[in-house]
Amino acid sequence: MSDELLAGLPVLAISGAALLEPSGWGALEQVLPGYMQPRRWFSGKARGLASARVQAAIPLLYAGQLSHLVLVRVLYADDGGETYLLPLAFAGAARAAELAATVPHALVAHAGEAVLFDPIYDAAFCAALLDLVAAGARVPAGDAELAADTTRAFAQLRGPIADALAPKVSTAEQSNSSIIFGDRLILKLFRRIEPGLNPELEIGRFLTERGQFAHIPPLAGAIEYRQGGTSMSVALLQGFVPNRGDSWYYTLDTIATAFGRLLANPALLANPAALDAPGPA
After folding, report:
1. Phi then psi for 107, rounded to 5 degrees?
2. What is the rounded distance in angstroms from the CA atom of residue 37 to the CA atom of residue 32?
């Protein structure tokens, strides 16, 4: 099955690092709509997609490999548009086969002897994002930069630097990609990004650093894309709050339980309030 999936990927005319240079963006743009539209984080599924244009490709090294955080401007047939963040890297044949068997939706296209893929499923890439925040790093990208910083709460939330925090990509249905680091931190990588101050960043920073409000996930840091006087939030790093799920799955479970009880006892239709009673009907 994985061989068939790999064989079915589109083939790019340009390969290697040149693909993510401005001269190679045109080739990449040919395959982006087909890759992005089925992704669960892509919000424009019901709209007619007219084009996808690369606006920037910010280099980021991880484990000796080169990846890029690519900003893609999507234009729709109704003249609207959105900007998406897409991490991209290259995998050799062996790694591509592993990805095809485990996370086939990460594969984008063939690029020469390599396969272009979304590296959030590489632990080393996730670790590089965390290191970027921890270092408060600045990554230049032409007339723009990728800028990371931390809050005063970072050191306590991170814990001892010697402690390895194994990353795990969350499987929850959401419009962003979340990476959990051990039982301490969670990085929310925004997929659809917008110019301006992100309310979650602004409020989280205030409540963490000034309000000391204990009833929200504390903000540990953030990554922004800055160009001129404009900034766009790329990622938020927060303290991880153990939980038993989210409201979406709670709602689905509640509905499933109610329908299960109705199927087992159709008489409940005459008294719907009985569905609120605990235990079997």
Report:
1. -85, 135
2. 8
Residue 123's nearest CA partner among 137, 149, 102 is 102
**Could you tell me the pTM of the whole model?**
0.84
- For residue 160 the two structure tokens come to 């001892």
Instruction: Evaluate whether 56 touches 142 at the Cβ level (below 8 Å).
Output: yes
Tell me the CA distances in angstroms from 280 to 250, 264, 265, 275, one per residue in order: 18, 9, 10, 9
pLDDT of residue 196: 92
Compute CA distances 112 → 6, 8, 10, 80, whole Å: 13, 15, 11, 34
> Which segments of the chain have a pLDDT < 70?
1-2, 173, 243-249, 268-281
Please report the pLDDT score of residue 19 as a whole number: 92
Q: What is the helix (H) or strand (E) element at residue 222, kind and residue range?
A: strand 219-227
Q: Residue 87's closest CA among 67, 73, 64, 112?
A: 67
Kindly give the residue spans of alpha helices, DSSP state H, lying in 74-189: 93-102, 123-135, 154-158
Task: Give the separation between CA 137 and CA 145, rounded to whole angstroms.
Answer: 10
CA 169 to chain centre: 9
Q: Name the one residue in this structure whose structure tokens are 């990085």.
A: 187
CB 37, CB 191: distance < 8 Å: no
Helix (H) or strand (E) holding 205: helix 199-206
CA 84-56-190 angle, to 5 degrees, is 30
Order of strands, sheet of 138-141, starting from the edge strand that comes earlier in the sequence: 138-141, 144-150, 219-227, 230-239, 185-189, 177-181, 167-169
User: Measured in whole angstroms, how far is the alpha carbon of residue 5 from the centre of its chain?
Assistant: 23
For 123, the token pair is 């632990």
